[in-house]
Amino acid sequence: MDIAVDAFIPDKYISSSKLRMDVYRKIANIENEEDKNDLLDELIDRFGDLPKPVENLIDISLIRNAASILGFSSVEQKGSVVSLYNHALDIRAASALAAEEELRGRIMLSAGAKPHIACRMRKDDRNLSIVKEILNVYTKLSQK
Predict the structure, then answer these.
(1) I want to staple 72 with a disulfide (CB 3.0 to 4.6 A). Which of 27, 59, 67, 142 is the partner?
(2) Which domain holds residue 53?
(3) What domain count does the chain have?
């Protein structure tokens, strides 16, 4: 994932480098919302409220797993465009995604050498939220 967002564990949040590495491993192993919630509870209990970069890191891990399950090989942001690459892109689902109310007029599809879905973000959009929305809607549409 190449997204313009701060995603790390600050030294001030977890001062021990050994503990930080353990938490990085736990974050990398997040597979679903239940894993995410369990880890959030653990981190808040042990270290206090999560700094935004840690929240972002957890979201990225969950997004990476969901994208991989759906066959997306990478997620990249260039300026205000977020692209999700998938060599086995479900064109029917991707086309339906472009018609979804929340994303209408913002989705671009490419079935060329590097098939992908691109989304033009608005000024008030959070890039991780847009990627989550695309993956959620694509999942529902590809299961129909």
Answers:
(1) 67
(2) 17-69
(3) 2
Residue 121 lies in a domain: yes
Task: Outline where DSSP puts E strands in 28-96.
Answer: 74-78, 81-85
| 117 DSSP assignment | E
- Backbone CA torsion sign across 114, 72, 98, 55: negative
Phi/psi at 75 (nearest 5 deg)? Answer: -130, 125
Q: What is the DSSP letter of 2?
A: B
Evaluate whether residue 59 is within a structural domain: yes
Query: Cα(40)–Cα(70) distance, rounded to whole angstroms?
Result: 25
Q: Are residues 54 and 79 in the same domain?
A: no
Domain end marker among 46, 69, 92 = 69
Q: Which residue, 45, 17, 42, 12, is CA-closest to 27?
A: 42
Entry pTM = 0.86
CA distances from 126 to 38, 85, 120, 121 (A): 24, 19, 12, 8
Q: Are residues 63 and 82 in the same domain?
A: no
